[in-house]
């Protein structure tokens, strides 16, 4: 499945690490004005578990702020 991930530049390393653990093939990376975009291909099954993890992370981060 082709995927495009966009986020703040401070999280680019973490996102790349997460994609790498899920055996994603990165096709393109771009950074502009403090934001990054990663285009890659990854199996759909691995994304569903990662989506749940990201939602949990965002929810926990909001509680701490």
Layout of helices and strands, plus pairs?
Elements (H helix, E strand, L loop, with lengths): L1 E7 L3 H10 L3 E8 L2 E7 L2 H21 L1
Antiparallel strand pairs: 1-3, 2-3
What does this entry look like structurally?
The protein has a 3-stranded antiparallel sheet with strand order 1-3-2, covered by helices on one side. The longest helix has 21 residues, at 44-64. By secondary structure, the chain is of the alpha+beta class. It is built from 2 helices and 3 strands; from the N terminus they run βαββα. The chain has one domain (2-64): Alpha-Beta Plaits, CATH 3.30.70. The chain has helices spanning 12-21, 44-64; strands at residues 2-8, 25-32, 35-41. It starts with a strand and ends with a helix.
How does the overall form come out from the CA principal axes?
Answer: flat
Approximately how much beta-strand content do the residues carry? 25-35%
Rg over alpha carbons:
12 Å
Helix content: 40-55%
What is the compact description of this entry?
The chain is of the alpha+beta class. It contains 2 helices and 3 strands.
Name a few traits of the molecule:
single chain, 65 residues, alpha+beta, Alpha-Beta Plaits, three-stranded antiparallel sheet, 2 helices, 48% helix
């Amino acid at each position: 499945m082709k995927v495009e991930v966009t986020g703040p530049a401070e999280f680019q390393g973490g996102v790349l690490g997460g994609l790498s653990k899920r055996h994603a093939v990165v096709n393109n990376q771009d950074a502009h004005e403090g934001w990054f975009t990663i285009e890659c291909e990854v199996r759909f099954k691995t994304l569903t578990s990662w989506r749940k993890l990201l939602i949990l992370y965002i929810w926990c981060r909001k509680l701490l702020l």
